[in-house]
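W.,

You were right to be curious about this one. When I first looked at the sequence I had no strong expectations either way, so I just let the prediction run and decided to look at it fresh. Below is the sequence, 142 residues in total, followed by the output.
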Amino acid sequence: MKPMLSAIVGIGGGCLILLLPVLASKFLNAAPSGGFRAMAVIATTLVGEAWALVFATRMHRSSDEFQQQRAKSAWYWGGSIGLAMTFPISLFIVNGGLDLVDPGLSMSRPLIMAFACGFVLPCVGLTVGYFGARFSHWGNEV
């Protein structure tokens, strides 16, 4: 399978799987409630991510060496720069900056903590993933 076709199938299929709870409630006129809805969203998210990961792996393996290195570099630098760009915005929000934009948008302390945890979690995941990948080849350098 060509790399671009794998990307399209992976992204399109993953997004469709992620939207299954929304589409089911819209077309079946039966919105799941409470815990069932949360579990359905979590389950479809896991399946959608697995789908995308399978096709991302297929895309990477079917690319030549130069395309693979370009993709790795783009993900590393693009992800790092993108995450770094969100940091000042997050600090602005956590430190009450929304009050300057619109006083009606003030956030309670628990909401601020939830937002901060939501920002920190991807940072921790990226850091753990980086060091896991970096040190999984420890001693294998040529």
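Here's what jumped out at me. The chain is about 80% helix and 0% strand. And, maybe more interesting for your project: The chain has a mean pLDDT of 83.

Coffee later to discuss?

I.
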